Amino acid sequence: MTLTTAEMTLTTAETSAWCSLVFLWRRGLPAIDRTFRHHGITYLDYAVLDLLAERPDGLMSAGELSDRAQVSSSRLSHRLSILEQRGHVERRSATSDARVVEVALTAAGAAAKRSVEPEHLADVRGLFEPLNAEEIAALARTLRKIAALFGSTPATPTRSETRSGLPDPPRSRGTPSQRPPEMQTANAVRLGSTFDPFLD
Questions:
Q1: Where are the beta strands (DSSP E) in 43-185?
Q2: What's the farthest any 2 CA atoms get from each other in the chain?
Q3: Pairing of β 59-61 and β 101-105
Q4: How many domains is the chain partitioned into structurally?
Q5: CA-CA distances (angstroms) from residue 40 to 37, 157, 186?
Q6: Is 156 a domain residue?
Q7: CATH number of 17's domain
Q8: Cβ-defined contacts of 120-125 (< 8 Å, 24+)
Q9: Which of 4-18, 20-34, 134-148, 160-174 shows the lowest per-residue confidence on average (mean pLDDT)?
Q10: What is residue 168's DSSP assignment?
Q11: Residue 189 domain-assigned?
Q12: According to the model, what pLDDT value does residue 150 have?
């Protein structure tokens, strides 16, 4: 497939949006991750502990936990092994079906989650500090549209999402939107001519 000149360039607006997104990815998200590292856990560890804490009994099957944390079963199993060693979770066979592995939140795991949660929420709020309420709502709508390109259509945040700062998994499949109409070429730059976000 041969691309036209317009398809090989980004408009000034697209370039600005893309550079800002990559800057947030490379600077903002690692800053949030540092809070977790300071507490000796990872973002995935926190997600697992938070998802289990949602349940009154602190129990969830490993399969459901993998789906809701949006990670592969092998990666989840690796993190669960580490969390087990720390005494934060326990794995056992379900009483209703021995083939099903259940993951249980321990008192130590609940305490670990509570210890990092205030700082994590403060970090997330800090990202939105320059924005007013209307701008935050507009940003949420915009990011949902982008998320739909990857097969997800995030819904209105649940109580658990609002409490923890973690997104729930996609609730339905979206259809990729059509490419925008004819792009403007004024002050456009060629794709990849600014920087490569995958260098480090």
A1: 59-61, 89-93, 101-105
A2: 65
A3: antiparallel
A4: 1
A5: 5, 28, 49
A6: yes
A7: 1.10.10.10
A8: 120/32, 120/35, 120/36, 120/46, 120/164, 120/165, 121/164, 121/165, 123/31, 123/32, 123/35, 124/32, 124/165
A9: 160-174
A10: P
A11: no
A12: 81
What is the tens place of the pLDDT at every residue in 76-102? Answer: 999 999 999 999 999 999 888 888 999
Does some domain include residue 184? no
**Nearest one of 153, 170, 171, 55 to 113, comparing CA atoms:** 55
Nearest to 35 by CA among 115, 137, 139, 140: 115
Show Cβ contacts of residue 28 under 8 Å, excluding neighbours closer than 6 positions: 127
Structure tokens that stand for 45 in this block: 């560890």
Containing structural domain, residue 37:
13-170
Query: Has residue 3 been placed in a domain?
Result: no
Average pLDDT estimate for 166-190:
38
Three-class SS state of 102: strand
Task: Please say if the pLDDT value at position 37 is more than 60.
Answer: yes
- Which pLDDT score is estimated for 6? 67
* Cβ atoms of 6 and 182 closer than 8 Å: yes
If we measure between CA atoms, which residue out of 188, 195, 199, 194 comes closest to residue 4?
Answer: 188
Strand order in the sheet with 101-105: 59-61, 101-105, 89-93
